[in-house]
Design goal:
With about 625 residues, the chain is α+β, with helices and mostly antiparallel strands. Helix content is about 35%, strand content about 30%. The radius of gyration is 39 Å and the shape is elongated.
């Protein structure tokens, strides 16, 4: 059986007994600070181990309830799997309780238990009234059907029953993903004498091992997990759902702060522009206008930014989900599906919350078309999300796809095996339809080129792809070309690419004149005139002459002696054969002249051509035949 790890949160109004209940359940006082003891309120997040057996390990976060410490509360509940909503019997639901309920809903908490505390302070019949009051407040929230437990923390009445209910509930619940990349939003940073810098937080996903190299985002600082602790005990590995303290090497306390994120890979995106879906609180007090400044609480980070609407200019009351954008003043680390809260900085008020549709938001036009595009992004299936990401970026590695789609690595790899996705270089993928479209485009370009210049071997690959590289990555273009070569769609000669079915040829209307010119060249044997004279005699115009000459050279119909004289290829081969038979292993110019009977006008260029072709090698005043 695979052990599972969970973290629960205690939430509720100030002085409703969260810390006392945590202590009754765990025997740990989570108020660590002197100010907390003196004022008898929780300022910072408190942590304690609740339960552990061979199946599960459960931790508790005691969340501050005072309005002034709302950001600590948000930082704490972001990584929890179940919430115990604490309501004091002698006070009932208070304003802070309602705000906590809103925040828990926006953060997507799915599991909850209501604990009515301080039952020793009221008569039994009054508790029924408190229950009715709470049920009314919980209607429409995640706690609407939550079980109620009555507890007296000081006398430990009902605490064992509550603990059993928590354990039973979590044992029937799925744990967080331990297979993905490791992520831990930092909520505490401190130093331990003799050990150095330590960070603490809830492992959102993945696992981390002692000695593992990690990265602090968004700062991009490389560190190493020197030691791990879970519940104040040394551990070799920390898993998703656990509270973990990590002793880091390679970084000082001053370089870290709450809100930083410890990750094991670069799958997580650092961004300032986020496409989001949000809901707002029912009793929003102040109008939210276009580009209103907001505080965005995401993970354990608190970042200032502005909210940008595309279908309205202001917001007061809205029950439906709103598709919009957050433009942040500082970088944040996030991925699709992450939950967040937005609050007004002044006057302080929770506006709403929601989830990240796309962490790589762009600038869009105001209007219905943008809303429709955001709807498509929001509703996308895994295949649609992969396809959309690949069409946007053209090709992506699996690491980049995980970032853009927020799919677990195993799920992503399974979908990438579908026939509509193509691996292009062992590391990256593209959409088959996109690769096919690029192949069609290259085919059209080559067809046009062959039609206009039928005598050329093809188009230089660099020239062929040059304009396309503005729209597509080079790795993708190279894949399409190589794939086309393997399938015979394209062919290659040296650096030139042509269509596989294409054969370079003289244009039909110049075939007879070209044939006549070659016959004339052949008749003149080795005593040829300037090649330009043959072109002129055949009536071949200057704009075609160079192209034709290059084609005939490539086709080995003619062989240049130099830039002016050319021999017919048959006569050149005969001359080489005659020279071989008429000379020894090495020979001088006089020997060559005696063998082929040429004047120096032709003989010297002929010998230099033999050198250039590698048939002979010059050694001082002699030439040596190469075998």
């Amino acid at each position: 059986m695979v052990k599972r790890f969970f973290t629960i949160g205690m939430a509720g109004h100030i002085d409703h007994g969260k810390t006392s209940l945590t202590k009754a359940l765990t025997n740990v006082d989570t108020d660590r600070l002197k100010e907390e003891k003196e004022r008898q309120i929780s300022i910072e997040l408190g942590f304690a181990p609740l339960y552990e057996d061979e199946e599960v390990q459960i931790s508790v976060i005691d969340v501050p309830g005072h309005e002034r410490f709302i950001r600590q509360m948000i930082a704490g509940v972001g990584g929890i799997d179940l919430v115990v909503l604490v309501v004091a019997a002698d006070e009932g639901v208070m304003p802070q309780t309602r705000e906590h309920l809103d925040i828990l809903g926006f953060l997507g908490i799915q599991s909850g238990i209501v604990a009515i505390t301080k039952i020793d302070r009221v008569e039994d019949e009054f508790i029924d009234l408190v229950k009715d009051d709470i049920l009314g407040e919980l209607e429409g929230t995640v706690f609407a059907d939550a079980p109620f437990m009555l507890v007296d923390s000081l006398a430990k009445k009902g605490t064992e029953e509550l603990k059993k209910l928590i354990i039973d509930t979590l044992k029937s619940q799925e744990m967080r993903d331990v297979r993905g990349a490791f992520r831990l939003p930092v909520d505490q940073v401190f130093t331990v004498k003799g050990q150095g810098t330590v960070v603490r937080g809830t492992v959102y996903e993945g696992t981390v091992e002692e000695g593992q190299s990690l990265m602090v985002m968004p700062k991009g600082l490389e560190v190493k997990a020197r030691q791990l602790q879970v519940h104040h005990k040394q551990a070799k590995t920390a898993f998703a759902g656990q509270r973990a303290a990590i002793n880091l090497s390679g970084i000082s306390r001053e370089d870290l702060e709450r809100g930083d994120v410890l990750v094991s890979s670069e799958q997580f995106i650092v961004t300032r522009t986020i496409d989001v879906a949000i809901r707002v609180v029912e009793d929003l007090e102040h109008l939210v206008k276009q580009r209103t400044p907001v505080k965005c609480h995401i993970g354990t980070a608190e970042v200032m930014g502005r909210i940008v609407f595309f279908d309205r200019n202001e917001l007061k009351e809205e029950s439906d989900e709103i598709l919009c954008q957050l433009r942040l003043e500082e970088e944040a680390v996030t991925k699709r599906g992450d939950r967040f809260i937005i609050r007004r900085p002044s006057p302080q008020e929770t506006i709403g919350g929601g989830w990240v549709i796309d962490p790589r938001g762009n600038k869009y036009r105001f209007g219905e078309q943008t809303i429709q595009e955001l709807e498509k992004k929001k509703a996308g299936t895994p295949v649609e999300r992969i396809t959309a990401a690949l069409y946007e970026a053209k090709s992506l590695s699996t690491e980049e796809l995980i970032k853009r789609t927020a799919l677990p690595e195993e799920t992503l790899r399974q979908h990438l095996m579908r026939e509509e996705f193509v691996p292009i270089n062992g590391k990256e993928f593209t959409v088959r339809g996109l690769a096919d479209a690029i192949e069609d485009d290259i085919t059209d370009r080559l067809e046009d080129f062959h039609r206009e210049t039928p005598m050329r071997q093809g188009l230089n690959k660099a020239e062929l792809l040059q304009t396309m590289q503005k729209a597509f990555p080079k790795t993708l273009l190279d894949y399409v070309v190589e794939n086309g070569l393997q399938r015979g769609i394209f062919a290659r000669k040296d650096q030139f690419i042509r269509l596989g079915k294409f054969i370079p040829h003289v244009p039909k209307n110049w075939e007879k004149r070209t044939a006549g010119m070659l016959e004339a060249l052949k008749r003149d044997g080795l005593q040829v005139r300037y090649f330009a004279d043959y072109l002129q005699d055949a009536g071949i115009p200057g704009n075609l002459a160079e192209e034709l000459k290059k084609f005939l050279e490539d086709e080995r119909s003619i062989v240049p002696l130099d830039q002016q004289y050319y021999w017919h290829s048959e006569l050149f081969e005969r001359a080489v054969d005659t020279m071989r038979r008429g000379t020894g292993t090495d020979f001088e110019v006089g020997d060559a002249k005696a063998a082929v009977g040429l004047s120096r006008k032709y003989l010297i260029p002929f010998l230099e051509r033999l050198d250039a072709m590698g048939l002979t090698r010059r050694v001082e005043n002699k030439r040596v035949w190469r075998s």
